[in-house]
Amino acid sequence: MYRYKVYDALPLMYRYIVYDALPLMYRYIVYDALPLMYRYIVYDALPLMYRYKVYDALPLMYRYIVYDALPLMYRYIVYDALPLMYRYIVYGALPLMYRYIVYGALPLMYRYIVYDALPLMYRYIVYDALPLMYRYIVYDALPLMYRYKVYDALPLMYRYIVYDALPLMYRYKVYDALPLMYRYIVYDALPLMYRYIVYDALPLMYRYIVYGALPLMYRYIVYDALPLMSQYIVYDALPLMYRYIVYDALPLMYRYIVYDALPLMYRYKVYDALPLMYRYIVYDALPLMYRYIVYDALPLMYRYIVYDALPLMYRIEYTTLYL
Predict the structure, then answer these.
(1) Taking the model in full, what pTM does it have?
(2) What is the DSSP letter of 262?
(3) Mean pLDDT taken over the chain
(4) FRET label pair with 292: which of 252, 278, 306, 321, CA 20 to 30 Å apart?
């Protein structure tokens, strides 16, 4: 007990050397009498209950090193005494319930690094405290129910990147917030029932690309809104029963190409809509009973070519053409 009383009389350079010889209960009392450079070294020799009390007596550069040696309940209290550059390093040592409270005290550049260390329930609350450029990086760490709410706070260029992390039911709602050039890319990620609703929000040049992803019942409805050159491309994606209806809307040069995609019963009806030069090409695709009827409409030079495609009972009638 006398060692403690004479401690302050020791020369400064010796106080550190005899510190360990002090009774445990007195080490805290004489701690401030230690030379500054030694306070960090003997810190772990302090009883646990006193480490918090002498923490502010530590040189600034050592406070983060001994932070993990603090009793858990005191780590939050001394957090603001840490130099700004070290707060990020000890963040994971904070009790879980306090991480949200000190989040705003972190340097801006470190907030996204420790974001995943936040309790799930607080991630949404501090999201707006993140630098704009990091919001998309931590987006997947948000609770599912909040992803939709913060979506509009994302920079425009990142909205496409996190789109698939949205709950399925919200993808339709934020679709119009996507940059125009990305809308067609995420189109297939939309729930089937919403694809038709957002179809008109697509740039005109991409509508034909996603056409096959539309629910079958809506393909006919949006067909006429397609650019003329794209109508031919998506023709085979039309429900069979509608192909005949839109046939006349096709550019003239494509009508013969899609002719075989028509239901058999409609081929005869649209035959006259074909350019004259293509009629002989699709002649074999006509139902057998109609070949004779349209035969006379063929240019003379083609009648011979399709003659073998005529039903047998009609060939004799035209035999004299080739004698």
Answers:
(1) 0.61
(2) S
(3) 86
(4) 252
CA-CA distance, 216 to 170, in Å (whole number)?
23
Domain count, the chain: 1
For residues 44-53, b (16+ Cβ closer than 10 Å) or e, as one string? eebeeebbbe
Question: Using one digit for the tens of pLDDT, what is the confidence trace for 138-155?
Answer: 999 999 999 999 998 898
Cβ count near 268 (within 10 Å): 16
For residue 300, tell me if it sits in a domain. yes
| 128 Cβ contact list (under 8 Å, min separation 6) | 150, 153
The gap between the terminal CA atoms of the chain, to the nearest Å, is 138
Q: Is residue 278 part of a domain?
A: yes
What amino acid occupies position 89? Answer: I
| pLDDT confidence of residue 12 | 65
- 307 is in which domain, residue-wise? 239-323
Q: What is the distance between the alpha carbons of residues 60 and 224, in angstroms, rounded to a whole number?
A: 72
User: For residue 135, what are its two tokens?
Assistant: 């919001």
Mean pLDDT of 164-192: 91
Rounded to an integer, what distance in angstroms lies between the CA atom of residue 264 and that of residue 266? 5
Within-domain flag for 245: yes
* pLDDT value of position 306: 84
Q: 148, 125 in Cβ contact below 8 A?
A: no
Q: Give CA separation, 270 vs 52, 135, 162, 223, in Å.
A: 91, 57, 48, 18
